[in-house]
Write a structure and sequence with these properties.
Layout lengths: L4 E3 L6 E3 H13 L5 E2 L8 E2 L10 H14 L6 E3 L8 E3 L9 E3 L6 E3 L4 E2 L6 H17 L2 E2 L6 E2 L7 E3 L5 E3 L18
GO molecular function, one term: zinc ion binding
EC number: 2.3.2.31
Protein name: RBR-type E3 ubiquitin transferase
């Protein structure tokens, strides 16, 4: 037989190595942890360690992580809220509610109750609402009034804005307007 063939463990089917590697990747992309023989009705299965030599280190590691995640109950799983970290964490089912917690991966603090960045001097529900509002404002491309921090939405027209408080500013950069139509500070 050809050295380019990969035999499925537990059945008599063999496939080209590059084909079975792509098959495994497609299953892992769908977060499947058990990868059966491509022909349904057979007991053949691709096992992680058996496939190590045909998969790239990145795909092999991804499979290991997927298996680990599958072993953790969904209600115990959560992730670091910092977008540049997102480490998988496990929630302890103890009776005590932990508020301030340090991510073991990035070492930054976050509120474990609401899974948001740490919010010193603010109640948890206020911090969660504040973060949700900031996310909505960013998504909707809202700007903040430079005087009273009101959110302002531009529907149409030029970048010149007049807030309900009366301050005039550039919608592109947020600087107070120095002329009637544009801020000379605007870089946008």
């Amino acid at each position: 037989m050809s050295a380019n063939l990969f035999w499925i463990k537990g059945c008599s089917h063999a496939y080209y190595i590059h084909c079975i590697a792509k098959y495994a990747i497609s299953k892992l992309d769908n977060n499947m942890t058990r990868i059966d023989c491509p022909v349904s009705g057979y007991d053949g299965v691709l096992e992680t360690e058996y496939c190590r030599l045909i998969l790239s280190p990145e795909v092999f590691n991804h499979w290991g992580i997927t298996l680990c995640r599958a072993g953790i109950l969904e209600d115990k799983r959560f992730y670091c809220p910092h977008k540049d970290c997102l480490a998988l964490l496990i929630r302890d089912q103890g009776t005590m509610v932990v508020m301030e917690w340090e991510c073991p991966n990035c070492r930054r603090l976050f509120c474990a109750q609401y899974n948001v960045s740490w919010h010193a001097r603010m109640e948890c529900h206020e911090a969660r609402e504040d973060i949700m509002l900031m996310q909505l404002a960013k998504k909707q491309n809202w700007r903040i009034c430079p005087r009273y921090n009101f959110y302002v939405e531009k529907i149409d027209g030029c970048a010149f804005m007049t807030c309900r408080c009366g301050v005039e500013f550039c919608y592109r950069c947020g600087a107070r307007s120095e002329t009637l139509h544009y801020s000379s500070k605007c870089q946008g």
